[in-house]
Write a structure and sequence with these properties.
The protein is mainly alpha-helical. Helix content is about 75%, strand content about 0%. The protein is built from 6 helices and no strands. Helix 4 runs antiparallel to helix 5. The protein starts with a helix and ends with a helix.
């Protein structure tokens, strides 16, 4: 038995509990925003605006992201090995999309979401939290 496995914490680290809460919050917000964008895009498509197809595609991507975040939030307490890289990838995508939105004149409130995403990435890369996912 290696030293790292022997010293693996029995209880999920406290900061990972906060990460789990943020994952649930992000998933719920993704669902709400995606539902709103879907409704608006479908309305625009009904009125002949074909450009709304892109918004509809992005809304569907938001639903997929929410499902991934929910799966990660459920499995994080078990320390499943695939959760950490998946969450890091989703949060990195959130940061990139936030930067793109800010550059294109989006709301300054994008900084809040980007800050949460960066905080989650930093937390998942700390030694104690990283050890939780290695079994």
């Amino acid at each position: 038995m290696t030293e790292e496995v022997r010293n693996r914490p029995l209880e999920m680290p406290r900061q990972l509990k906060f990460v789990r809460v943020f994952l649930w919050v992000q998933a719920v917000l993704n669902i709400l925003v995606s539902a709103l964008v879907t409704a608006l895009a479908l309305n625009e498509l009904d009125h002949g605006n074909e450009e709304a197809g892109l918004a509809l595609a992005l809304a569907l991507l938001g639903f997929v992201g929410a499902v991934v975040l929910i799966a990660c939030a459920i499995r994080i307490s078990r320390g499943s090995a695939w959760v950490r890289p998946t969450v890091i990838a989703v949060e990195a995508l959130a940061v990139v999309m936030g930067v793109i939105s800010l550059v294109n004149g989006g709301a300054i409130t994008q900084l809040i979401g980007m800050g949460i995403a960066i905080g989650v990435i930093v937390t998942l890369n700390k030694p104690e939290e990283r050890a939780w996912f290695t079994r």
